[in-house]
Amino acid sequence: MDKHRRKPNWSTNELEALAQGVSANIKTIRGKFSPGLTNSHKTECWREIVERVNSVNVSDTNRDINDCKKKWHDISCATKKKEASRRKEMRATGGGPAPPDDLKAWERLIAGTLSKSSVEGVEGGVDTLECVIATPVQTSDPNETSSSCFELMDKESISMMEGASASTQSFTSSGIQIYFY
């Protein structure tokens, strides 16, 4: 039985070639489809990136489009987390020296493709991981049903209302199942 062998780890040269190829073509890769930008344009762009990556590959293994897309997704997510952490530390109070800029050259290319809001979040936005839920409210208008009018509640209010701790996973209130994530 022929077992599938894993491919070798990506070399620094491959990562740099991938980051250079994607950052140079980011508008094509992330662009919305239109008569001027079709799926075949995007596929051709990825083929060129794969050729660039394979040209610097020193192993006998060649990468394909799916390998490059997956690796791009993985390294861009990791770079986004690293850059968000660095920026958060820069905004922290307490003085002291600034955090070191320890991004590698290919990570800087990736960071250049990220929007400010994707790294720092939306100014004044609501954190969806916070528990803010809607519960039905009894109204005085007979034409309104209780399911059409909702009141926002936070973890503290729910804890006091239910007599449960703030780490409650789920409960039913007024016929609505409420989940904490």
Topology:
Blueprint: H1 12-24, H2 26-30, H3 39-56, H4 65-91, H5 105-113, H6 116-120, E1 133-136, E2 150-153, H7 155-162, E3 170-173, E4 176-179
Antiparallel strand pairs: 1-2, 3-4
Radius of gyration: 25 Å
Write down how many β-strands occur, each being a DSSP E stretch of 2 or more residues: 4
Pick out the low-confidence regions: 146-151, 164-168
Arrangement of strands in the largest sheet? 1-2
Strand pairing plus helix content: what structural class?
Answer: mainly alpha
Percentage of residues in DSSP E strands: 5-15%
* Shape estimate: extended
**CA-CA gap between termini:** 44 Å
Number of helices: 7
Largest sheet composition = 2 strands, antiparallel
**H/E element sequence:** HHHHHHEEHEE
Measured as a percent range, the helix fraction is 40-55%
Instruction: Kindly report the average pLDDT value.
Output: 75
Region (Disordered): 79-102
Domain Myb-like: 2-76
Protein name: Myb-like domain-containing protein
Biased composition (Basic and acidic residues): 80-91
